[in-house]
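Self-study notes.
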Amino acid sequence: MVVSLRRRTQATNPRSDLPRSIADDSDSELDTVCEECSSGKQPAKLLLCDKCDKGFHLFCLRPILVSVPKGSWFCPSCSQHQIPKSFPLVQTKLIDFFRIKRGPDSTSPESCIGKKRKRTSLVMSKKKRKLLPYIPTVDPQRRLEQMASLATALRASSTEFRNELTYVSGKAPRSANKAVLEKGGMQVLSKQDAEALALCKNMMDRGECPPLMVVFDPYEGFTVEADRCIKDLTIITEYVGDVDYLSNREDDYDGDSMMTLLHASDPLQCLVICPDKRSNIARFISGINNHTPEGRKKQNLKCVRFNVNGEARVLLVANRDISKGERLYYDYNGYEHEYPTEHFV
């Protein structure tokens, strides 16, 4: 399995419409320090509030910022930051928000698996095991609460819900997404695993969401927790968003959530997923601090790219059993080692 990620992380930016860092401001005093750690080291990562002119390291803020945000930026005191307003727990509003389709009674994932999966030896190697569709929460009221938590996060980040890759005018066309272009090749999703993925998509379309809750943490921002026990190799979600050429995003300093979709030999054919305008719950799953043993122990998901019917797709899959209430984490640097995780909580 090959994982590939690319996220822009440069803190300084010459563009005039971005907030200032100490390195960008020639008039800044040399003794400007971070209000949190009282240090003036790493000035390129000291961000100045556009109201009070106080400095803050990107990595000292809670939640941490990995890059200079677009537009004006105000420190926690000046912005009077509060917990985002919860999405209304009203079924009709959630149906409209997620575009839930009404249809005949669904077949449970357990029954589908029971019909198709054979009993296997416990000593079977992990490489030969099949992916599992997630099992939604049985209680419909709890499912509404789960979906409302995701709607809250999406609305707070001004993101439209989508559960598939989107191709929009001015960016990469769908015809550019050819898994055969992957440098070194890309593993093909098996027929049975493709059926499991399709089942997950169909369940979400019907409002049977993954058993997950999006929680706002003052230190990490929006995070995702398991709302029931999840088995190893369960498909959690697909990483989705607008598909674009990497070459179009080289100067996107705020694209800290970009995911590599296609790593081609020709740089002009490389594709990324940009979830800033359209996305799903994958956008809010946290990354580990892979610079420490404690951080690496948190990982309970794998980010894997597959060839699905000739197109590249990115899945987040459980890499061990996950307990109820456990926060979800994966390695942002599974392949390219470009994301700065050393300051992650």
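Second protein, same conventions, sequence then structure:
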Amino acid sequence: MFINSAPFNAEPPRQALVSSYVTPTEFFYKRSHGPIPVVDDIERYSVSIKGLIEKPKEFFMKDILSLPKYNVTATLQCAGNRRTAMSKTRTVRGVGWDVCALGNAIWGGAKLADVLELVGIPKYTNTTPAGGKFVEFVSVDRCKEENGGPYKASIPLSQATNPEADVLLAYEMNGETLNRDHGYPLRVVVPGVIGARSVKWLDSINIDSQDCKGFFVQKDYKMFPPTVNWDNIDWSTRRPQMDFPVQSAICSLEDVNVGRHGKITVKGYAVSGGGRGIERVDISTDGGKTWKEASRYQKPGIQYVADDEKSDKWAWVLFEADVDVQSNTEIVAKAVDIAANVQPEKVEDIWNLRGILNTSWHRVHVQVRHSSM
């Protein structure tokens, strides 16, 4: 589904999104903040690591490729996923995403923890001797919000140096070289965190004592209460959003559906941030009065258990449930993660002026057309 061209943003149709556990690259949502950069001289391309460290260093692609390669299956989700539905309650600002501004891919690359070791930062480091506590990623991408400067974002050093956090400098997506839309030649992948922190088209990495001062960290992607508007907002009162909350959506049906009475198969996705698996997905065919548990799955033929080592902790689950619909009704989905976090019922309770993190119950309507025979 094409959304806008400048900058280019797009999401797939609902049913295409959940047609497979690993999202084909052509169905993976595309999010840009400026013109898509062209990096055509791969031999000269490099990423510098500098800042509050003892051994600043420049890395060429051959240096990154020489490090151990890891494949991490992780779902990336735009913080504005499902913004359009939130805007129906009260208008918000931002890209008008439906429910498909996310995707699940197998990312291949070097672990950031391994790369940082090469500049003298040991694994599991919280602070460098010079006082560095954050890792800032700077993109080749240029955007108007930075007054023509580069897009940038940051994560805590403790997360970057933890190999179990699986933060990657990725050069592959689904077994193939990254394409331009998704960050060629090198991008950051921060699993379990809103997509805005997984910087594409990586140019440099800075180790700093403070969080990134860029626009998209300080003046965007923060969660405010419904009482805050553009006249009284104070960006400094909220921390930058990192983990995304538990989320689910129905993808086998549109917002309004017309069909015959009888059995309907309800399919969709559920995902939670921070590596928290999905414990349950509930489906209601009466607007939330009664519920039925859906089946959950990831890889075909392998039973999904939320916190099992065979499950992909950074990835979504797909769900499915057969329901019986005899009259006009509202079908609802809500998910629960392993920490017992559950989606809020009403979008009004989590409305915010930027329209991020709409994780309210997902609702679709079915209108039954009875046969005249």
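Instructor comment on the second fold: The first strand starts at residue 2 and ends at 5.
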